[in-house]
Amino acid sequence: MTEFRAVPNFLKEYTVCAEDIRASSLYRAPTNNGPAVPQDRFEEIFEQVKTWGTYTDPSAGAWQSVTPASVVEAASLVRSGRVVTTALPWNTVSGPSNANPALHYMTDLGVREAPEPSCNKDFIGVDYHGKAVSHLDALSHIAYKGLLYEGRISRDVVTATGADFGSVSALGSLVTSAVLLDFTVLFDVPWLEPGTAIHAEDILAAEARLGVHIAQGDAVLIRTGHFRRARELGIWDSSDLSAGLHVDCMPLLAERGISLLGGDGDSDVRPSPTPGIHSPIHVLAITAMGLPLLDNLDLEDLGTACAEEHRYRFMFVVAPLNIPRGTGSPINPLAVF
């Protein structure tokens, strides 16, 4: 019997058996966001996963775990040439999850322009840190107790004109291998209900079920079926109610040395299991680990592609806009099989 043991869970020790995992009747989806993580325990986990002082360029954080050799290895995963986009459509319609709709309007129409050729022009603009735009969170985005990653004082390095530390322009682009952890496959459900927490043992179970192993430098993508649910049942305000990772996942992901975390929500389970901290995964990933996040990815086509390609590991390309002093960027990451 093959065993997969997680890093110590602060609430219990557990062993996940591959044979049991593959029997869906023995492995059920979690049903709530708990158990609660007290503030003092959260502080211990923060210190456990913290990587301050690790990277040559703290502004780029965990992206530096991807080496030229990592890129070559990622390229070796390209076999069929299938390319899958993971970005949501540009959303200009106000709704429960889109309080600040993106802008798109025409600034010039070629019918009024001479001589040839005529030219059509448009404008786009967006307040992208929210629930309706696929985007990347750079290391200047999240402060905890007034501190950014590496202990930089947020108010000293982020001002009304932008970020002098941890900006998206410091990240550059990322080409690496990625793993899709599709929890709808693990639990044999169309989607995880909002408020459902994914735990460390679930990550191990997903690895066993999907035939993957998260390695150093990997990007990890979490599919909960968020946007399938939205399309079939309607949009809801996911600011305080969404499926996502429980705090107990982060020591395991820290141990694996991943370069990027993303999901079809914003990685955090909501309501938060930690009283007083609305986004504990954001804090642990960005502020403690120097780990950029991808929020609001549309992973439905990627889930289909992985199933059809019979693999959940692929090359992943992330190229944020080069915005000096920006706290992040709208994004359209590509999976290449």
Rg calc: 20 Å
Helix percent band: 10-25%
The outline comes out as globular
Unreliable spans = 1-26
Summarize the main sheet. 9 strands, mixed
**What structural class do you assign from the helix and strand content?**
alpha/beta
Number of helices: 11
Spatial strand sequence of the major β-sheet: 3-17-15-9-11-13-14-6-16
SSE string, helices as H and strands as E: EEHHHEEEEHEEHEHEHEHEHEHEHEEE
Would you tell me the overall average pLDDT? 92
- The counted number of beta strands is 17
Oligomer: single chain
Note the beta-strand portion: 15-25%
End-to-end span in angstroms? 31 Å
How does this structure look, described?
It comes from Arthrobacter gyeryongensis. InterPro entries: KFase/CYL, KFase_sf. This is Cyclase family protein. With 337 residues, this protein is an alpha/beta fold. It has eleven helices and 17 strands. It has helices at residues 18-22, 39-49, 68-75, 154-157, 168-171, 183-187, 200-210, 226-233, 250-256, 280-288, 300-309; strands spanning 3-5, 15-17, 83-85, 103-108, 121-125, 135-137, 158-159, 162-163, 174-182, 197-198, 219-223, 244-245, 260-263, 293-295, 313-318, 328-330, 334-336. The strands form five sheets. The protein has a nine-stranded mixed β-sheet, sandwiched between helices. A two-stranded antiparallel ribbon has the order 1-2. A hairpin with a 2-residue loop joins β7 (158-159) and β8 (162-163). It is globular. Mean pLDDT is 92; it is low at 1-26.
